[in-house]
Amino acid sequence: MKKLLIFLMWVPCFYLSQKIETGTFSELEYRQKQDRRPVIIHFYTDWCTVCKVETFRQNQDKELVNRINDSFHMINFEAEKTKENIFFQGKEFTYVSNGSSGIHEIVLALSRNKQQPVYPLWIILDAHLNLIYYHEGLWEPEEMKKKLNELFVH
């Protein structure tokens, strides 16, 4: 009885801990060779409150979490703090410092707003890494599910 009680106490922790699985740009080439999938890129900053709220809401939507984890490679990328060089689509992208802050070139390359990208920024690529959708600003889970279903039939 005691073991059952302990087990039942832990079940909610496992259920609530499920979240969108993410990788990095450096892992993407290998992951695509192993399992070619469409790619979702999420650019955010740690000062962006909307980014934090959005991530929390999306991770609470189990249908969305499962859809992304089962069908996509996902990259979360901190646009203003990530300093490593990124190799993507045959090009090298670096961090551009601007005094005490800066921005990564890959954000500028993929953003439509080259002077000041809008966060959060979502880029969806097909399985061959071609741009198929672009979204700036808050993306609610229901809207995201709807768009993913429009772009990619289950």
Structure commentary:
This protein is of the alpha+beta class and 154 residues long. The protein has helices at 2-16, 25-34, 49-60, 62-71, 105-110, 141-151, and strands at 39-44, 73-78, 86-88, 91-93, 95-98, 101-104, 121-125, 131-136.
Considering the chains and any ligands shown, give keywords for the structure.
two-stranded antiparallel sheet, 4-stranded mixed beta sheet, 8 strands, 6 helices, 154 residues, alpha+beta, 42% helix, 24% strand, single chain
Shape: globular
- Average pLDDT figure: 90
In the predicted model, the low-confidence regions spanning at least 5 consecutive residues are none
Q: How would you sum up the major sheet?
A: 4 strands, mixed
SS-based class: alpha+beta
Spatially, the strands of the biggest sheet line up as 2-1-7-8
Summed up, the helix count is: 6
**Which value, in Å, is the CA radius of gyration?**
17 Å
**Helical content class:** 40-55%
Number of beta strands: 8
| SSE string | HHEHHEEEEEHEEH
Distance from N terminus to C terminus (CA atoms, Å) equals: 42 Å
